[in-house]
Design brief:
- By secondary structure, the protein is mainly alpha-helical.
- 71% of the residues lie in helices and 0% in strands.
- The longest helix has 28 residues, at 138-165.
- It starts with 21 loop residues before the first helix and ends with a helix.
């Protein structure tokens, strides 16, 4: 008969996770956006592709977690690096199920919810608690990171389900998930379980962070503030580094708080830093957004129903709106292929990939079915041009199919 007693604790092994304060939640939300944006940057902008990016991020996460598990106490910089990396890998897991295997978001959300329940059940049966204030043994920390990984996968699936499958969009996503977090906080204040409300809020911060990131990055014609992924990531990263650096300095100066003690630096001071970080994101975001000239480039799409100088006036036949900016890139790529300049076409098609990927969060919720049709046709174009031995006939055929679909959707 096996026992469920915890392994002996070392007197020098302190709590391995931060005290839950306002600063904790601000860093958590911001790190979600940075993690997702960085993965997209590697896969699309750098050109590594989803497969290589997935393998690379899993490998880096394994190294980071090894360092984290070898630590004897909470170390802010490695802990939050692990959170960012888990955010990336958790998102990649959900995207693999949805985009590669074609699993419905309803199914994946349900599967990850059940998997999280299994992790919690095993954790509780072994340790008798799910409180993160008691993460002070190797086994408890393994359970903790397993739960964190599944919460990110679940949060991604649930967020995509709400904003994409249910077509709520990222603007409504900010309001909905933000409201649910506020409701969770109020429930805690009214006496709900601290452990339960913590994990509920932890799951909800994933879709909130993604929706907030989309709100800042998407072009104004798609309902965002038009900062772009790179500028938003830098803004968030600066705030994260400032808050984590403060945590690191406090740990170095005062040591790590024992289980059950108050937050380092005092609650009021911590709240001040958290509010300051949140305000900095909002104010700087609005200032930077106001200083940027609205774009009508293909990377952002154009105002639905508006005509462009690239071609005749369009009359959109789907909720996706005016797609003529994408058609302009396709026409340019077709020109290279017609001259059998497949190298030039391969270079040119990168513009289409970047434009389509950048506009995904704004376009997909409008009409998920037609978006997926175009997404599949764009993938066919990319695959044919990036084949080890591309042929003019295959590339031309796939481009013609995509061009015709875009024209049909634009009503020209």
């Amino acid at each position: 008969m096996t026992t469920t007693t915890s392994p002996p604790r070392s007197s020098t092994w302190l709590t391995k996770v931060p005290v839950i304060t306002a600063t904790f939640w601000v860093i958590k939300v911001l790190s979600t956006t940075v993690g997702e944006t960085f993965a997209d940057f590697l896969a699309v902008d750098v050109g590594l592709g989803p497969a290589i990016t997935d393998v690379a991020m899993i490998a880096v996460l394994a190294v980071a977690l090894t360092i984290q598990l070898r630590k004897r106490a909470y170390t802010p910089w490695i802990y939050w690096l692990c959170v960012v990396l888990v955010s990336i890998v958790g998102t990649q897991i959900t995207d693999f199920f949805t985009d590669t295997l074609g699993v419905s978001l309803y199914v994946s959300t349900a599967v990850f919810a059940v998997l999280l329940a299994v992790v919690f059940t095993a954790w509780y049966r072994q340790e008798g608690t799910l409180a993160i204030t008691s993460v002070d043994t190797r086994r408890r920390e393994v359970f903790y990171w397993a739960a964190i990984l599944v919460t990110f996968a679940l949060g991604t699936a649930a967020g995509d389900l709400a904003t994409e499958a249910l077509s709520l969009g990222f603007r409504n996503g900010v309001l909905i998930f933000g409201g649910l977090i506020v409701a969770t906080y109020l429930a805690r204040r009214l006496g709900a379980s601290a452990v339960l409300t913590f994990w509920v809020a932890y799951v909800l911060t994933r879709p909130l962070g993604a929706s907030l990131g989309d709100l800042l990055t998407q072009d104004r014609s798609l309902g965002g503030l038009g900062l772009g992924a790179s500028l938003t990531s830098v803004l968030f990263l600066v705030v994260i580094v400032a808050l984590v650096a403060r945590e690191q300095l406090l740990v170095n100066r005062h040591g790590v708080a024992e289980k059950g003690s108050g937050p380092l630096g005092g609650r009021r001071r911590d709240l001040g830093w958290a509010v300051g970080g949140a305000v900095a994101v909002v104010v700087l975001g609005l200032v930077l957004a106001g200083s940027r000239t609205p774009t009508t480039s293909a990377a952002a799409g154009t105002v639905p129903g508006a005509s462009t100088s690239a071609g005749p006036a369009v009359h959109p036949t789907t909720a996706l709106g005016d797609l003529s900016s994408f058609s302009a890139i396709v026409t340019s790529v077709q020109g290279h292929v017609a001259q059998n300049d497949l190298v030039g076409a391969k270079t040119n098609v990168k513009d289409l990939e970047l434009a389509w990927d950048s506009a995904e969060a704004g376009l997909k919720p409008r009409d998920p079915k037609d978006w997926r049709l175009l997404d599949g046709e764009i993938d066919e174009v990319l695959t044919s041009l990036r084949a080890s031995s591309p042929t003019q006939a295959d590339c031309a055929s796939n481009l013609d199919t995509l061009a015709q679909t875009l024209k049909t959707f634009d009503g020209v």
